[in-house]
Amino acid sequence: MPSAQDLTVLRRLASQVAEIAALPVQEEKRRLWRALNALRPERPMVMIDQVCWNEMHIGDELVLRCEDPECRGYEGLLRRILFQWRHFPVDMVVEPFILVHKAVLNTGFGIATAEEIAVTDPTNDVVGHRYENQFKTEADVEKIRFPEIGHDPTETERRLDFAHNVFDGILQVRPWGVDPYLSLWDPISTWMSVEGALYALVDQPELMHAVAGRFTEAYLCMLDQLEQQGLLCQPQSLIHCTGAYVDELPAPGYDPEKPRTRDIWMFGLAQMFSTVSPAMFKEFEVDYAARICERFGLVYYGCCDPLHLKMAEVRMIPHVRKVSMSAWVDQERGAAEISGDFVFSRKPTPAAVAMDGFYGEKVREDLQATRDICDRHGCPLELILKDISTVRYEPQRLTEWGRIAMEVVGG
Prior knowledge:
The chain is of the alpha/beta class. The chain is built from twelve helices and 14 strands. It has a single domain (about 5-410), classed as Alpha-Beta Barrel (TIM Barrel), CATH 3.20.20.210. Helices cover about 40% and strands about 15% of the residues. The longest helix has 24 residues, at about 205-230.
């Protein structure tokens, strides 16, 4: 049990979150997200995520006061929800529940990264990495192990009991399973380095097919176990920094005690493939990722990878509903390729909030240009400001960016 002091702090914050979650605007925002995700948007939607929280200093709003580590985890979450709602809510939805992660056991893929790290700002968790290539011959492929999934029900019950003791009567407590993020090439890039993997695609294609094939089988094995043991998450509120509300999920036959992959969204990407050809993208990413994505209800595809020249290949991936259009895309080409078939998930450059000064009119021009392009091509649009590594310790920049974005979309 938490101490009386910790309990007081948490219940006070939870009450504030519950009050906000009960506002009619939350259901209105859910309705707007459902319309967008059904490709029948009433207006573009806006999100701000992956915030540099180490720079968000306004008064003492984020100062933790709990002493128990588990309490501090909940306190940090609640304070961030309240902070964002007060300062840059845009189209976030504040939910009336707390997620409690099940104690899922995973032996992993058998490989630890070998790397050097470079730190610029010691208060920021955004750091530089230099990875060692651990896959040089086909014999190295055997390093990839098939995960063994398990569950510690006693620990899960302990976590749930703790949360019920804190939040009952204020916020719902929801047990939460694994929310899959199944990129092949993000992990491979940490095992081989980006340079090592890219060179190997050309110099050792047989090796890279072997790596991608074994890794795909390992992922599918993991999903089988998560489904069989009822350890997947339930239908999500968020998928990759964006609203995941849809009427299509969960799929018919859904059992909340045993969610299936077909009941939820999946998020996939191949960021290190930004510079490879469409043909190589299909050969080494699409042909493998499609085997994973076909199991899920819906898919959000892409991140920082510019996909405007690879939409023909992205269309080969099953169940894609949203496609990332990063700061490096030709938006006109991307919108023409997407048309009304997917959500144009625009990632405006976070450099707009990281420069020496904040230039609001430049932000407005950029966002308005995106909206105009999507209007011309009939693209459902969302604006997602993310990967925010710095705002130069001026959190009001996010407030101003959010205000401008909501004016552009008419929110």
